[in-house]
Amino acid sequence: MSRLYVFFLRFLRHRKRLAAGALCVPLVVLCDIRITVMIGDAIDRLRTNDDTAFLPGFFGLLLVVAAAQGTFRFLQRWWIVGVSRSVEVELKQELFDKLTVLSFGFHNKSRSGDIVSRLTSDVENVRMLLGPGLMYVLGAAVMVPGSLFVLYRISPAVTFAMSIPLVLVAVSMKVLTPRMHRYSTAVQESLADISHRAQENFAGIRVVKGYGLEAHESAGFDERSRTNRDHQVRFARARGLTQALIHLSHDLAFLPILFVGGMAMIDRTIQAGDLFKFIDLGFKVFWPVIALGWMAGLYPRALASAERIDELLDEPVDIRDPETPRPLDEVRGELRLDDVAFQYPDAPTPALTGIDIEVPAGSTLGVVGPTGAGKSTLLNLLGRLFEARGEITLDGIPLKELSLETLRGAMAYVPQDSFLFSESYRENLSFGARRTLDDEELATLIERAEMTAEVAAFPAGYDQLIGERGVTLSGGQRQRSCIARALAKDAPVLILDDALSAVDTETEAKLLEKLRGAGQGRTVVIAAHRLATVREADRIVALKEGCIEAQGTHDELLERSEWYRATWDRQRMLEELEEL
Amino acid sequence: MRATKHDELVATKAWDSAVMRRLTRYARPHAGLFVKSFLILLALFGTQLYGPWLIRGAVDGPIASAQAALQVDPGADVSPWVQTLGWWALGYLLVVAVSSGLRYFEVAWLTRTGQAVIHDLRTALFRHIQRLQLSWFDKHPTGSLVTRVTSDIENLNELFTSGLVVLIFDLLKVVIVLGLLFSVSVPLATLVLVLTPLLIGVSLVFRGGARRAHRTVRARLARLNGFLQEILSGIRVVQMFRREKLVSGRFTDHLSGYLSANLRTIFLFALFYPIVGFVVFGIQGSIVWSGGASIAAGSLTFGEFLFFWFLLQHLVGPIRELGERYNILQSAFASAERIFDILDTEPVIASPTRALALPRPFTGHVVFEHVSFSYGGAGGTPVIEDVSFEIPPGATVAMVGATGAGKSTLVNLLLRFYDPTAGRITIDGVDLRELDLATYRHELGIVLQEDFLFSGTVRQNLELGRDRVDDDTIETALATSSADELVRRLANGLDTEVEERGATLSTGERELISIARALAGEPGLVILDEATSSVDSGTEARIEAATHSLLRERSALVVAHRLSTVRRADRILVLHKGRLREAGTHNELLAEGGIYARLHAMQFSADDRSAEAV
Question: Is this prediction's pTM over 0.90?
C-alpha cells in the first residue's frame, strides 16, 4: 500500500488538474441521480393529476441537468485520465534516464525484453489503478451511498434487499478478476509460443527444408496452435462465468424491486414514480460497483508492478565519477594494465585473469584469440564499461580516479556489433562529434571511412534515414560508418572491437593506414578475428580462455603461439582463395 | 541497401465480398458451431426481452388490479393479487437464471466457434508457407511472415467472435426492439425512430476519429518502444560517447509525441460517452414529455412505460458499439487479404505429381550434367555456368573458390532449394526434379555455415523429428563425432535446453552438435559447408575429427575451408566466377600446376615452418 502511495505522490505533482477532476466526479453522480429523481417525480405528477403544462419546463430543465452532467463527465475524464498519462510519461522518462546511467554490467545481465516490459506494462498497470481506477472508485464512492440514500428514504426494505446482489457482484468480481488474469496470461504465453515457433521455423528454413522437416514442423505448429485454441476457450469460459455472474446479480437486483416494491405499491406506501426511481437507479448504481470489484482485482497486479518499477529505480549505479576526480588536461594516451582480472556476475569462471599489458602513447595494440577468449571484455574494461579488478591506468592515473567525462572523452569507440541508430546519417556521425556536423565536415569523415561512393548513392544524401525505416546498410558499410562516427570525435585513444571483419582486405588496409595517421600519435587498441588486421600492430596480445597466451609482434607470435600460427595459415589460404 | 515497405499500414475497405466468400469456405466445416452460437444469441436475447416483459406484466397485472380494487374499497383483501405478484416474481427469477446461464454459453461458444475456424486457417497457412520455395523466403522478411501467422490471424479471430456474428445480431436486435417499441406505443416509438439516427450519427462520426487516434497512439508507442529497445542494445555506444543527455532528450521528444496522441484519444473518448449520454437523456426526456399526456390520460400504462424504458437500453447498446464493429471488420478484411495473398502463391519447387521412388539401396551417386543457374531465370546473369562433375558413391568432393564463385549455389542446387536453369542433376541415375522431395531429403546429412539450432533440448535438436533417429543412433552419432564428452558436461545431458543466444553452447560446440545431428540420421549423402570462425585449438581438433567421421565412406559435397578437409577429399573442384576451372584428385591438381598447386605450395611452406617449430 505504502509503495503505491509513493506513486500516488507523483500524481499529486499535478494536484490542480487532479483536484479539479476529482471535484467533477461527485457532480457527475449528483446530476445523474437528479435526472432519475426528476423523471420519477414527473411520472407521479402525471399520474396523480392531469396537469401536463409543466412538461416543457421539465424537459428544458432535464436537458440543462443532462448537459451539466455531460460537461462534468467530460472534464473528469479529461483531467484525471490526462494526469495519469502525464505521470506515465514522467515515470518513463525517469526510468529511461536511470537506464542510461546504469553500468553496462547491469545491461549485460538483464534481458532487454524484461526492461521494456517494466517501462510498458508495469507502468501501465500502476497508471490504470491510480488514474482511471481512482476515478471509478471515487465515482462509486459517491454513486453507491448517494443512490442508496435517495432510495432508502423511499423504502428501506427494498433498498436493503437490492443491496445484496450488489455486494455479491463486487465480491465475485474481486475473486474472478485475478482468475481471468491468470487465464489471459496463459493465452498470451501460448500466443508468444506460436510466434516464437514460427519465427524460428522461418529463420531456419534452410535446415527445415534441407532435412525435409516440413511435415514435422507443421505438426509442431499444429500442436501449438491447438494449445492456444484450448487456452482461448478456457479463458472464454472464465470470461463467460464472470459475465454470467455480473448479469445475474444485475438482474437479481430487480427482483426485490419488483416483489417488495410491488407490494409497497399495492398498499400505496410508494408511488409509481418511486418504483421508477428504484429501477433507473438500479441500472445506474450497478456499473460503478462492478468497476469497484474490477479495481480490487487489479490491485495485486498493480502492486507487483510497482515493486518491479521501484526495483529498477533503486538499482545502484555502480560505475560513477569519483568524489574528487583527478584532472587530466592533455591526454597522451598511454594505457597500462596491471594484473587485471574480471569475472561476470553469475559466471562460474573468470572471463579474464592476470592481464599485464603496456600500451605506450601513440602505439597500436592488437588483441586476438579464439571466439570467447575475452577480447571484447578486455576492450570494455578500458572505457570502464565494466569495473576491472587489478589496475588500469591512463597516462599513469588509475581509471577509477578520473571522471567518466575525462576518461571516455579521451576515447573513440567502434563497437563489435557496428551499432547505428535508426536516425539520419548526419545524426549518426554527429553523435560522435557532440554537435551537428556540416556537409563539409561530413564529406571529410565519409571520405576517410571509404564510404563516399555509398553515401553518394543515398536518395536523401546526408539526411538519409538509416535502418528499417530508411536504407539498410550492409555489414561492411555499417562498420565503416561506425569508424567515421568514431573519427568525428578526435580522441587520443581509439578502440576498435573487431570492427573491420566485414570490410574487404584491401579497404581494411587503407582504413587502418588512415586511422593510425589521422592524428599522429593516436593510441589504437584493436581486437580482431582476422589476424591480417593486426599484423602491423606494434604489439599483439593473443588471449586464450581469459589469459594471455603470448604477446609480441606478428613475427614473434608466429613463433610463440601455436594457435596464432595455425589460424594465420588457415586465414591466408582463405584470403588467397578470395584473390583468385 | 534496400528500402523496406510497410505493407501493414495500408488500410482497406470494410467489406469485401470476394474475401468474405473465401472466409466462408473456412467457416463451413464448423457450420454446426455457428448455428449453435446463433441460436444461443437468439435465446439469450429472448430472455433479455422476456424479463422486462414480465415486469411490465406484474406492474400492469396484479399491482394495477390490487391498486384499482383498493381505490374502490380501501378495506379490500389484496392477498390473491399479492400471491399472483409472487408468481410473476418467481417467473422473473427463472428467466434471470436461464439468461445468466445463456450468457455463459454465449461467450464460451462464440469463442469456440471463432477459434475452430482460426485454428484451421492458421495451420493451413503455416503448412502452405512450408511448401514455398527458398527464393520466396529470401524475398519475405521473417518478421512480416510471423505477423501473418500471429496478428493477422488474431484480427480474423475478432471478425468471427466479436465482429461479424455479433454485428449481424446487433442489427437484428435493433430491428426487433424497434418493432416491440412500436407494439407498445406508436407515437413514442416514432419519436425514438426519429431520434436514433442522431445516435447512429454520433457513433459513426466518432468511429473514424477514434480509429485514427488509436492508430496514432499505437504507432507512436511502437516508435517509443522501438527507440527504447534500440538504446538498450546500443547502450555501450551511448555511454562510451557520453551521450546520455542527448538520448534522454530524444526520448523526451518521443514521449511528448506519445502523450499528445494519447491526450487526443482521451479527448475523443471523454467527448463520446457524454455526448451519447446526453442524446440518450434527450430521448428519455422527450418520451416523458410527449408520452406525458398518454400517461396522464391513462392510455399508456405504467407497466408499458417501464417496458419501454428497459427496451431503450437494448437499443442504445448495439448502436453505440456500431462504430467499433465497423473498425473490427475493416482491419479483419485487410488481414484476410494479406493471408490470402500468401495462400495464393503456388510453390515453384515441389515434388512432381508422379514422383519417382528413390532407387534402393540409396548409394548417393550424384551427377551434375552441364548445370547452369541464374537467379533471374533463364535470361538472368548466370551464377553457375555449364558445370559438370560426379560424386561417385562414397566419395567426397570438395569445392574451393572465392566468395561468390558459386559454391553455395551448387549446394543449394543439390539440396533442390532451386532448380537449374539448364542441364540436370541426377541422383542414383534419376533426375532430381522427378524424385519425391521428402524421401530424397531424408537421405541427406547437412551441416551449414553458422548452423541453426532450434530452441528445445539437445536431444530434440539431434532428432529433428526424424523417424530413423532413435536413442541408439544418437549415441553412436555422439560417440563418432566425439560430441559425447560435450553432452556429458551439460547440466542435464541430452535434455539440456539449447538457449537461443549462445549461453549454453559456444560457436564451436554448436558446429559439433550439428555434425552429430547429421550423423544421427545415418545419411547416404552429406552436404557440408564448413564454418570459417576461429575457435580454440581443442575444439578445432574435435571438429576436424568429427568432420572426417562424417565424411568417411559417404558421398559428400563439401564447401571446404579447412586444408585437412580438402586434402582428404577424393576429388577437388576449383570454382571461379561460376565456372569449374580445375577438377581432379589432390595429386592430379598438383601435377597440373594451376591455381590449386599454387595454393598448396603456399600452404606447404607454412607446414614446413610448423614442422621446424616443433
Answer: no
